[in-house]
């Protein structure tokens, strides 16, 4: 991404455009393949949570440094708390409850912080994934 850039958008009903922006900037930063798609899906889940459970309004901020791509999604209700990161695996036949669980599985880092009247989800993806032992 060359020089560090910080992007910020209000969360509205145009989710396809927001996903396109995230995907384009993530690809420009160096994510590709399944890691790119994982990042976009996780960010989309966080945005949907804002629309459905987080007061309906919020912001999305995206930036890249030398090592990671970071997206922060802030809602207007403040109901999420740090312990919500550790959700158990939802039942397979459950119609809901996969969003937070999925974010934690798709991204390298997932955290939630709470401020007065707002919650913030932070998702990070390393630009170079860590190698597993024995994989190089």
Characterise this structure.
The chain has about 140 residues and is of the alpha+beta class. It has one domain: Heat Shock Protein 90 (2-Layer Sandwich). The protein has three helices and five strands; from the N terminus they run βααββαββ. A hairpin with a 3-residue loop joins strand 2 and strand 3. Helix 2 runs antiparallel to helix 3. It starts with 5 loop residues before the first strand and ends in a 10-residue tail after the last strand. The model has no long low-confidence stretch (mean pLDDT about 85).
**What strand order characterises the main sheet?**
1-2-3-5-4
Largest sheet: 5 strands, antiparallel
Q: Structural class, from helix and strand content? A: alpha+beta
Mean pLDDT over all positions: 87
* The top level CATH class name: Alpha Beta
Give the strand content. Answer: 25-35%
